[in-house]
Design brief:
The structure holds two protein chains of two kinds.
Chain A lengths: L1 H10 L22 E3 L10 H5 L5 E5 L2 E5 L8 H5 L5 E3 L14 E2 L17 H7 L3 E7 L5 H7 L13 E3 L8 E5 L7 H10 L5 E5 L1 H5 L22 E2 L13 E2 L10 E3 L6 H11 L7
Chain B lengths: L7 E2 L3 E4 L5 E3 H13 L3 E7 L8 E8 L4 E8 L6 E2 L9 H9 L4 E2 L25 E5 L11 E7 L2 E8 L7 H5 L10 H7 L5 H16 L5 H29 L3 H22 L8 E2 L2 E2 L5 H27 L1 H7 L7 H7 L3 H5 L7 H4 L20 H24 L20 E9 L2 E9 L5 E7 L1 H12 L3 E2 L3 H8 L4 H4 L1
Parallel strand pairs in B: 3-6, 7-8
Antiparallel strand pairs in B: 1-6, 2-14, 4-5, 5-6, 9-10, 10-11, 11-17, 12-13, 14-15, 15-16
Classes of the chains: A alpha/beta, B alpha+beta.
Amino acid sequence: MFRILQARLQQGHRTMRYPDGPPPPLPDRFRGRLLMDRARCPDTCRACADACPTTALTFPTPTSPRLDLGRCLFCTDCVAACPTEALGHLRDPQLAARDREALIVDPTVPADRLEVAHAALSAELQRVFGRSLKLRQVSAGGCNACESDLNVLSTVGWDIGRFGIQFVASPRHADGLVLTGPIPDHMALAVQKTWAAIPGPKIAIAVGACAISGGPYAGHPEVHDGLPGFPTTGDVHTNDDASPLDEGHARGTGGASAIPIALHIPGCPPHPLTILDGFLRLLGRLPAR
Amino acid sequence: MKRQDLPTIRNAQATPCARLPTLSGARFRDTVLRAIEGGSRVSALLTLAPDAASPTLLAVLADDLAGHLALVQGRLEPGEAFRAMTPHAPEVHLFERELAESGVRVEGHPHLEPVRASPPAATRFVTLGGDGHEVAVGPVHAGIIEPGHFRFQCLGEDVLQLEIALGYQHRGVERAMVSSPHGDPRRRVHYAETLAGDTTIGHGTAHALVMEALAATPAPPRGQAIRGIGLELERLANHVGDLGALANDVAFLPTASYCGRLRGDFLNLTALVCGSRFGRGLVRPGGVGFDLDAVRRDELLDRLRATRADLRSAIDLLWSASSVLGRFQETGRLTRADADQLGLVGPAARATGAERDVRKDFAFDLYRFVHVPTANWHTGDVFARAYVRQLEIEHALAYVEDQLLTLPAGPTRVAAPLDAPLARDHLAVALVEGWRGELVHLAVTDADGRLARYKVVDPSFHNWQGLAHALRDQAISDFPLCNKSFNLSYAGHDL
């Protein structure tokens, strides 16, 4: 017993004060969203878009680049391919958004449309979940990186229990689904059954590039490109006939509605602070900055 | 063929396919079985052209003592069935199921059920009947855990048999790694990094080694050193996390809490190197994507030393609690003979007294010059799997510190364009000791120097069998503890 107390003294109190105090420090090489300095871009250069493994970075018109944070792996390929060092990563961990469309941004504009308001639930749902949100996590093709950094939120350093948020062992105890992974065909039924087993009102949260867009597996015939458009019941088409870079989405049959997504948290995987920030803004527990 | 006549390669080496004689199906089988009898392990067994009418088989046989990989190639006649080796060599059980799933006719196999490509729900489980009952768990598990299905055959509380049906995580990686029809070379490194996300650096290194062998662009020493540091930091984070999770599963909360946090400290050290807690972007074919300047190196050393002190207090506490030892000892035992027969790798094998470790037996990168002592223990139980992790934590801490203090000068990467020509009609194999054990990446090029076949063997592929075996005659209530003591990857198995 004495040794346990001695160890407890040595380890100290480790729960961060955030959001009442400063957030935990991010590494100086932290890779947030891309920022592009168009003034440095040679006219016809597309080296960054050509290097992108997931078509997250594109040029819909020759002069206006487009960045889809839901597809972005936050890798280094575009930055490394740029001949003029016009690209860099911001160190802002705040990336989560309520609407899928809000993740599609202009990479030449630093703030753009990623506003805090985009993450908040309706006042009605905030009233229901704001002080107690129990979540069922399902990994559907997740590689265990998103899963690991979701798990981290329950360790003493982060302690999301402070906010009334808890990962629970059964969908029957849950208010919402947290999905990771691109949803392999072999997991389609399990995802539908889990969603059906959660009593309403309920929300769904997509964590990581795979859950939002398929990530590096987008377009694979074995997967469904994540949660957007994923039907609540019935058969789902896979990407069978698509080429890997098609804008493939899970497409339902039989008129079943899609699982509605309350929050998209980009990253591969997202940093725990990005996930926590998303959860807190969803619940209206972070002040607008 | 006699064992000594087999063509061999060293780890991370490419060889012309023409060097491999093509044996008949029967001689292939005979040769592989004799090599196993002579002490070799099957690191990989695959078919090179799955759809061909006359499939070509390839076996990579690891000779741990000699430190080389023997390659055996055979070809079946059109319509010819391959007589299963599993009845004589249980370690190929799952490999042969994989062969069958990819279209090879396999005969005489005791249990040809799905591996990953076909729906796992189609598995026909072995049942006991009589007074026994079945317990089905998964694919969705009661925590933040990847999906898989466990089917227990029980008599009361006792598990007589556990069968593990996986494939829920199948994302088609091997198919997409090759050049045609749809493979995108830009995605390869990202597939490697997400094969098992907790083994980003391990799989990233194995992929880099195999591509470097085919492109003849080995990483410069500084790049090798930095990815070795990354690989050991990955081992540290995962082993520390596992010790915490094991403590949690026996309700010893102090160590569970401390190790949960300390695991994050190691992830943050990796993030200090490359910005990502999991090492995304660190390893690239030809070297590494990030350098360590002197300031960063000193900060790494300082934080490593501070974390080490906290870690020792957390782990010592674990061993001082008789309630922990009471739960760990004698639980989920595997014998050395079990481990050898099932072809187990990594800490799970070393916990039965085996000494195999890729870093020693098939040393790659800077492990050729700086040796990591092999950690093992002989009891084969949960305790041994935990204790081996602690020993490996100590060795990894020493290795990282040593490497940081003696970083070679020079460039960190020999960059080659994605479409750089690879050696034509060559085969390369790379083995890496990831934190779970032996990672195998194997690539074959065609006559145009494009990737024609890519095979990945995650250590979990071998070790899931070990977990199933360890559960025999255990109380079903000990499953979570046993499972955690292996902590295997679903994504790495399902590809």
